[in-house]
Amino acid sequence: MFNTFDITDFGAVADGRTDCTAAVQKALDAAGKVKGTVVIPPARFLCGYVKIPAYVTVKGDAAWDFKMDQGGSVLELNDPNAKCLFDITGAFGCSITGISMDGKDLGENVNGIMLRWEDRLKSREPYGGAEDTPAISDCRISNFSGDAVHFHNIWCFSIRHSMLCYSRNGLSLYGCDGFISDCWFSCNRQSGIDSRFFMSGTFTGNRIECNLGHGASFFDVGRVQFSNNDFDYNALCGFYAADKNEDFRGNIVLTGNMFHVSGFESLDEKVPDKYKAHINISHAVNVIINGNSFIAEPYTAEK
Asked: Considering the entire predicted model, what is its pTM?
């Protein structure tokens, strides 16, 4: 197909032994010259760090389940020293769809998909101050020693119908203008969603469950809206928003969400009381909490 590049044409082999990093990068570079598409066919390919150029689509066939197995198009991390699998810093307008990424718990602080600008505006000056606008859909990103998706100084993005799981955080977020819908944030070692600064975003129809920290945590939040999400069995708060600064002015809307057994570690005396709640919001104004469902069941550890 015109301007479509299959990684197997560049030497990628799905035999469980071949390092396909160079082949994947060659396909990405070729697509970058024409703003084209890279195809990852249904198979499991070993891969290390690769960088996606601007306006490139990476496309595969999605076939994955909740637990530990993936079919379809899979990239399996094989480099414990990589900082991430997909680096999308500067990949303006890129799209990643239908790919399963398996970090194999290799290394330390290895992220699945990473965008990291050291300075949000000055870093983009050579690009005319462009917004990032990456789109992630139909992906399963799991088993990374760092975050499944790590965004630092992101400016405009979307994540849809994807599973960010079994990693440090499902989504680590610092930035603004996000649209997140129909996703799973499951079984992460810390939070499903963790934000240290965020200035406007909508979270709709997601399942945020079984994380060993908060379901969703926000520090220094500007404007966020959570509608019709399911928070289930998170170890600490279902939704937590706070800041050390008493002048913090978060604008938060929580409507139509379900909260089930938040704070299942609440019997642990070492856990502060402020983490034993479905919702904990402090130092915020313009907060709307309306039409949510709250269920608390006794949690008894097996002896």
From this structure: 0.94
